[in-house]
Amino acid sequence: MNRPLGVTVSRHIIDSQRLHPEATGELSGLLNELIVAAKTISAEVNMAGLADILGMSGKTNIQGEHVQKLDEFANNTIKRRMARCGYICVMTSEEEADAIPVVEGYEGKYTLAFDPLDGSSNIDVNVSIGTIFSVHRRRTPDDGSGDDSDLLRKGREQVAAGYIIYGSSTMLVFSTGDGVHGFTLDPCVGEFFLSHPDIRIPQRSKYFSINEGNYTYWDEPVRRYLEHLKAVDKASGRPYSARYIGSLVADFHRNLIAGGIFLYPRDHKNPAKPHGKLRLLYEAAPLAFLAEQAGGRAITDDGRTILDIEPEELHQRVPLIIGSTHDVELFGEFLAGKR
Ligand code: AHM
Ligand code: MG
Known about the structure:
Bound molecules: 2,5-anhydro-1,6-di-O-phosphono-D-mannitol, magnesium ion
Largest sheet: 8 strands, mixed
Mean pLDDT: 93
Shape: globular
Strand content: 15-25%
Structural class: alpha+beta
Oligomer: single chain
CATH architecture of the largest domain: 2-Layer Sandwich
Number of strands: 13
């Protein structure tokens, strides 16, 4: 399909839906509502430093208004907009323990899982953060509210997934199953324009992204893999370079464009987190969907394919190894004891 640079994201979504004659326009409507929420969050993120001057988060600003923390603001913005968009029946957010119902009478045929503002440790230090989302078709009958069973779904069944990165510019990167496309926000016009059509992740890379401070707590294959990437061997392009921001969206985005492998394996630092730190439904699965759509791979640190994991809990954690196919497969060889 011809995807001319510079088309608006709304035009792009409508054109993509033409590939699906059975489409009712509801998924387009859902994505467009989410994009409005993203633009609202982007504007607030850009004001973050000023909000601090006017009144610290959680306190009252100079106008006597309550200043919300950014992650709280992002959560409320998405929740309120999507609760009466008419296209979803239930939501789950990293910020909320239980599933979030939609307004009665506005139930639709999709579900939404989201991390409103990922990279919390970077929020106050002006480093890129992001919103991640995942959309499924509901499982319960189309009328009435949805429940956890609509949300506890394999990543493979996603109908759309993506993220918004609030970085040097704001970008929306998403897929509805026909490749991965990136759009850059023109803040003057308030519109996302197609800037990165048909993103393909380089098959092999020279970058790894991992929190190496956890080295002592990793399992043996992970340690050996990292030692391998750092060893000198010009023929295979080693040593690799390290790039770690500590914001999943930013680390993933860099690797998606430039090539790379991101790892957040399980570690033995915190017994409360025996499966690593990242969450399956709104962190690992949507990014795995994008990785596969872009020609990359995403597995766990015991070799399971992320998109095939059947979730059991809304906030389930999962070890995540994701990125350039060659590098992920090489990790698999260390796991299998072949190296
Ligand atoms: P958060 O949801 O509290 O922001 O935590 C998730 C973030 C990811 O963005 C990032 O990949 C990871 O935590 C970094 O963790 P660490 O600081 O342990 O390296
Ligand atoms: Mg998060």
